[in-house]
Amino acid sequence: DVQLVESGGGSVQTGGSLRLSCVASGVTYSSGCVGWFRQAPGKQREGVAGMSAGGGRPQYADSVKGRFTISQDSAKKTVYLQMNSLKPEDTAMYFCAGTPVTCSFTARHYTQWGQGTQVTVS
């Protein structure tokens, strides 16, 4: 039984920053991938960033490269998404997720999901 809980969302002005956190309880993947996805109303869920569960090899969607940073604190079982230079198009519900296999930006590959945290940029 793995539960993922996101926090840190909110409303921010264009150009501002937010840091999202995802805390895992129960079993945490020691291999595979942890990542962040987002979904705006009427749009498909899209991958934002991913990182191997053991740490390292971060990857980012082109739309957020240079602005977002994914990191992980294994001791705290927490994954972070630092979001800088936020734009209105970043507005979405953000989810953390885990998969026992290699990182990908395909949502259906992920087996564990948090409840989401809303990010609104205006």
Describe the structure in your own words:
With 122 residues, the chain is mainly beta. The chain has no helices and eleven strands. It has strands spanning 3-7, 10-12, 18-25, 33-39, 46-52, 59-60, 68-73, 78-83, 92-99, 112-113, 117-121. The strands form two sheets. Strands 2, 4, 5, 6, 9, 10 and 11 form a seven-stranded mixed sheet that branches. The mean pLDDT is 93.
Approximate strand percentage: over 45%
- Continuous helix count: 0
The tally of beta strands, per DSSP, is 11
Radius of gyration: 13 Å
Helix-strand string:
EEEEEEEEEEE
- The computed structural class is mainly beta
- How would you describe the shape? globular
Helix content: under 10%
Taking pLDDT < 50 over at least 5 consecutive residues as the criterion, the unreliable ranges are: none
Give the overall pLDDT as a whole number: 93
Ends distance: 37 Å
Largest sheet: 7 strands, mixed
Can you tag this structure with a few keywords?
7-stranded mixed beta sheet, mainly beta, 4-stranded antiparallel beta sheet
Q: What does the secondary structure layout of this molecule look like, with pairings?
A:
Elements: E1 3-7, E2 10-12, E3 18-25, E4 33-39, E5 46-52, E6 59-60, E7 68-73, E8 78-83, E9 92-99, E10 112-113, E11 117-121
Parallel strand pairs: 2-11
Antiparallel strand pairs: 1-3, 3-8, 4-5, 4-9, 5-6, 7-8, 9-10, 9-11
